[in-house]
Amino acid sequence: MERKLRKFVPTFLQKIDRDWMLNRPYLWATKIHYVLFYGLIGLGLSMTFGQLQPISPSQISISTSFLITLSIPALLALAYWWYRLSVIFSQFAHDTQIWRRNFSLILLGSLLIMAVPTSGWFIMEWRTMEVRNELNRLEDTKTLEQGVHLFTSVMPVKLYWTYWDGHYSERSWYYNYSREDAIDDFMGLDKAQIAADFLEMAHRYNPDSYPISAEELVVAYHNRKLPSQFTRDALWHWRQDLMKRLNYWEELGAINPFRLHSGYALPSVEGINWKNIYPGILLFLIPFLGLGLAFVYLGLRPFIGFVLSLSALATVFGTMGQFMTYRVEIQEFFYGMMALTGFFSLYFGFSKAAAKNWMRSAQSIALLVGLTAIYGLLLFGPTVLLDMRTQGPPSALVMSGILTLLIALWLGPFQRRFNYLQTSPTTF
Amino acid sequence: MLSTNLKTRLDELYRLAEEQDLSRLSRRILDFFADYHLAPALRNDAIQLRARYNEFAANEQAEQDPAERAEMMQSAHDLISEIATALSQQLAQDGKGTDKSLLPSQEPDLVFSGRAITKTFVSPKFVFNLPDLDLDLRLGEITGIVGENGNGKTTLLRIVAGDLEISGGNISYPAFDVAAADWYRIKQNIAFIPQALKAWKGFLKENLHFTAAIHGIRGQENEEQVDFIIHRLGLTQYEDALWSEISSGYKLRFELARALVWNPALLIIDEPLANLDINTQEVFLQDLRYLASSTQNPISILLSSQHLHEVESIADNIIFIKNGEALYNGSMQEFGQDREENLFELTTSATKSDILAALEHLEDISVEDRGHTKIIRTPVDMASNKLLGELVKKDIAVDYFRDISTSTLKLFREND
Q: Which residues fall within 8 angstroms of residue B121, CB to CB, at 6 or more apart?
């Protein structure tokens, strides 16, 4: 396998590989040169195929488009280097005792990052608590395929909700959310704001069709009060008309439906389902409990090491779980990436600091942050540029997979040396 | 005039050439270049000779071309002459005829020093205690730890490697010149090869390049160093192999290559002989002996093993641990010097009575029957050849005979 794969490596890349192996070993071990080269080739190919295949973006699911344009080549490339390094398997293999300390260091780093408001951790926690009730609805979902099918069929509703509160309504994906349900919710909420925003959009695309100017809409928006002519029936009619137009424009390629996303809002306290807040709090508190224990038992006795490891695992899998259940928006995903980068950087930093080598510690952090930026740009840069959305379990799974691989790649080059070098002697 | 040390080394080369022992000759020539700075062209020739020999030796004996062998011998002869000439010129430039920088230091540096080292493991079912141990490891010396299973050999190795905390006592690494708790820097000087080897990912040679590079050996020097170590350890034919494609013996040798490629000061190997055949054991131990004694990059080697005789043949110091007690901890040469009797181990079809009858004219002889083997105890002045002669004279068929008076095997036998 290894030899066969090597046949597909062009000479110039082999030269780079050898040069880096001899002179820049840490960079070499990340295999970033392979990721860049094959990732770009894969991206170019997928974009070419996309151009040759005249399918409107609205006719395929976002997750599918994400897969065919980005994930598959990226995953193949990453899987290859993952295979080469197999760092997941060797991470804890060198010495069965070291993993406790490693996990504890990960934990300490993650706690520091979590304590920083901009890390996004609080946002993720809030959203976990907020949408917990929706999770119950998801249980009604029969199959993944059904969800994907529903997503396509209720696309206009999704757009509507997108514009409503600034982020997609997850409900429309798996919950058979009828247009009647949508309009009822629509009317029952802040209709002034919704209608104003909604009509402003319509006005922009076809100002002559609607008896209200943009200025009037702005006034209506600020007053939180709609003019009298905005009856329920009128809104429903305009909405239907607009959706037809939007669909038509989408097919012409005139607009990108995914551009409508404009950010998200933090949930209000009233939006929290207090009944389900405890799991979120627990998820949040376990690592802190672990931190306390870590300080008390700095010697990291076996049992405590085990407890800390569980805490760290809860932290990591809690984050993953949120990705898996698409509780996290793309921005939050990036926040998550930042957080993970941060605590892995700190992890190595702590490791090296523990070895009293601050200079190398700083180098490790700088290198890791740099690599994160490169990987992030390569893998998610095109997504951001195209403003493609990456919602739904399929893409969330893909992202989780990529994230895992990235972590593996980050760990790989360093693990081999640090496993032995980073630690002070263990107690057993 | 060449220094005594150089002359001894050159004489060995001439002797091996005379014996036509191309295997050892090509290795020793390379060892020479590891110790003395000579022209790079000569070093390359030496590496090429060794690489060529490795490929030659990889063939079946019937397929080995005698002409090629003769050609390599001639190349070796030429190389030795060139080395001698180059050294003479180099030393003549020194003006005094000697180059002190090429000589080994008189006082070996103390790499590790441990006093009253103890280690205790407590579990619900049993308690393990490593005894109070004093241990000094010096550059250029090999220290062997022998003893039965479960007596703490690996534990001691892990303590020295900085992998395991001690329960009591003091340890230090004087030669590394770093703070006591600066484990990062301490471990920069230690190579530890555990008994259970972990699989390498990717091509073996690339792993060696990577290891050398992360230890600061970069560029051309990296290539040369990796080539040197690969050919020196006879790994030429497997340099482009994968971990899954080589045997256990070669895996250990590649581990050794990875450990040695960055010139550590302390090499710790846990049970290295376990997976090696007899021939490979011999070569491996010889390699360790020469690598430890290198004049330019001497290494302190600490190894554990169950193969007493093999370890004793190369070790400067020996530690014998049994039942939570260090029965011996000192120089190999001094072991048994203060003994009160001689011990001989033999296997024979003769019974204990037969042996006693055959040796009845000798004084203070006793025989212990251990089933498969017999142990004969004699006064200290009884030489092994004399005892063996007496047995043969009385028609005692001896299948195996060994003088264990100065071997730690005696401790095994005495404390059964």
A: A428, B127, B128
